[in-house]
Amino acid sequence: MPVSEDLSKLQPSEIFLSRIPIAHAREHGVMGFRGKQDDDVWLAIDSMAGYEHLDIIARALAQRPDGELRPLRVRPLPATTTAIARAINAAYSDQSSRTQSVIDSLDRDELLGQLAGLGPKEDLLDTEGRAPIIRLVNHILFDAVKSGASDVHIQPYEDRLMVRKRIDGVLFDTFEIPKSVQEEVLSRVKVLGKMNIAEKRLPQDGRATVQLGDRTVDLRIASLPTSHNERIVIRLLDKSARLYTLAELGMPAHDFGRFASLIARDHGLILVTGPTGSGKSTTLYGALQELDSEELNILTLEDPIEYQLDGISQTQINEKKGMTFASGMRSVLRQDPDIIMVGEIRDAETAIMAIQASLTGHLVFSTLHTNDAASAVTRLLDLGIEPYLVSSSLVASLAQRLVRKLCVDCKRPRRSSEVLPDVPPLLLESHGLGRSDLVGVFEPVGCDACRGTGFRGRVGLFELLVIDDTCRELVQSRANASAIREAGLQSGMHLLSMDGLLKVHQGITTLDEVLRVTTL
After folding, report:
1. Which ranges in 294-394 belong to alpha helices (H)?
2. Fold match between 99-238 and 246-517?
3. Contacts of residue 257, Cβ cutoff 8 Å, sequence gap at least 6
4. Span 117-133, pLDDT tens digits
5. What is the C-alpha to C-alpha distance for residues 362 and 360, in angstroms, rounded to an integer?
């Protein structure tokens, strides 16, 4: 019998899924599929050991809950190990979307005393034999990972516990949990993060790692006391997620070409600016991937390390142990680096170290929390950095935001013939657009593919300020951000709002999304 390499077209056996735990299926490399008849089960196996296990699984599948045996025919189906592993993950993943049913079945008396700790890497698909509260928290995390959420909020109210998740930058209510089991849910999450469940008056931070099939997800857990008990936010970092290249970020061609040439320099300081969650780390990772080669020594200082980069040495900041960005920079400079990425400039000491490194033959990337590209320059001055150091080291400042993309499966042209309001004519003219160009732009509808939101995925808006001679003179004279911004516009800089309008015109996003993150 030939060995199957693709099992995706076969339908999983409900009998198999209900009787065989995922841990058992993985351990023995077996997966059950429906045959043509209800009493047929094809058992995918990857080795002779699978054949030896065939009779044991057949007896387990044939036994009814009342102990009687059902007529069942189990037949072997040789398959590759990879194909079986994929089939197991897909089948048990589909079966595990039952969070609300777990909530509905909660019994507080049954939950007390069932807060056992997780293993080093909890598998969210393996709920067999788990206590209800453990299954509930696993299902909440499973649902968040599967839907692509970046954060999970567990928020207590006076009469209920609300679970919310952030998808594509927007918070959605997901589940409502009875107030009667609030303590157990919060304690379970704190146990997961190795936090002190007895301490409820002070904020705490914790970390954990969970598995979802073959995906590894790191959790950053933070608690905060409130008037209705502690609220908890869980940041999800999917280690298995594919990193974006620079070309995939949505940077306009005008800026992409200039940015690509800037990061090819052998020295200087390049800053990426924006609020938390604006995609700064993704852009920096894209730049480092573009530069990565055997001829360059690239080192990073990060808090946290969000993704592992092949061929690049990444160091985790640990301020409790004295490993700060500033102290880390001193150590990194002794490692003969060509390129350094500093996760964030938080203070004057880190800024000075980054600037000195850029002036001594290193290319340095870092981030700042400023609203636009020009403000990054004045922020360095506000930190006490001398103007001559800023003007001689800073190469460029890239401001960015993230907006939701319209779902390609359901977006439609606006039915109204009215021009979109609140768009300054001068802003349109700066992009070569007229008001008539915004008639008939696309609007969200909602479908199964986008969970009824009308949006799926996100794209960046960018504003690239290249520090030229004019900007350097302004920096030397301590000019304000408005003057630097005006100089940038004169030299061809496109504002965030300009890039946003261009993407509205192209049918990528909506004006409401652009207005949510920028000011026209």
Report:
1. 325-332, 348-359, 373-382, 387-393
2. no
3. none
4. 444 455 655 555 456 78
5. 6
Q: Which H, E and C letters describe 493-504, residue by residue?
A: CCCHHHHHHHHH
Query: Which position has the token pair 């909890």?
Result: 122
Picking from 500, 518, 494, the residue whose alpha carbon sits closest to that of residue 461 is 500
Question: What pTM, to 2 d.p., does this model score?
Answer: 0.75
Q: What is the DSSP string of 243-292?
A: PPPGGGTT--HHHHHHHHHHTTSSSEEEEEE-STTSSHHHHHHHHHHHH-
Distance of CA 199 to the CA centre of its chain: 29
Q: Which fold is adopted by the domain 99-238?
A: Beta-Lactamase (3.30.450)
The amino acid present at 143, given as its one-letter code, is D
At 404, give phi and psi (nearest 5°): -75, 140
Q: Is the CB of residue 343 less than 8 Å from the CB of residue 335?
A: no
From the list 85, 28, 22, 79, the residue with the least C-alpha distance to 55 is 28
Is there a cis peptide before residue 304, judged by omega within 30 degrees of 0? yes
Angstrom distance (rounded) from CA 166 to CA 170: 5
Q: How far apart are CA 193 and CA 221, in angstroms?
A: 6
| Residue 353, helix vs strand vs coil | helix
Give the span between the Cα atoms of 337 and 311, in whole angstroms: 13
Strand partners, 464: 398
CA-CA distance, 411 to 106, in Å (whole number)? 40
What does the alpha-carbon distance between residue 145 and residue 100 come to, in Å, rounded to a whole number? 16
User: At 105, is the pLDDT very low, low, confident or very high (cuts 50, 70, 90)?
Assistant: low
What is d(CA 223, CA 200) in angstroms, rounded to the nearest whole number? Answer: 9
227 pLDDT above the threshold of 90: yes
- For the four alpha carbons of 194, 197, 198 and 200, in that order, the dihedral sign comes to positive
pLDDT at 215 (0 to 100): 78
The domain spans of the chain are 14-94, 99-238, 246-517
3-state helix, strand and coil shares in percent for the chain, rounded to the nearest 5: 40, 25, 35
> Which CATH code for domain 246-517?
3.40.50.300
Instruction: Give residue-wise pLDDT tens across range 471-481.
Output: 999 999 999 99
Residues 166-183 have pLDDT tens digits of 999 889 898 888 888 899
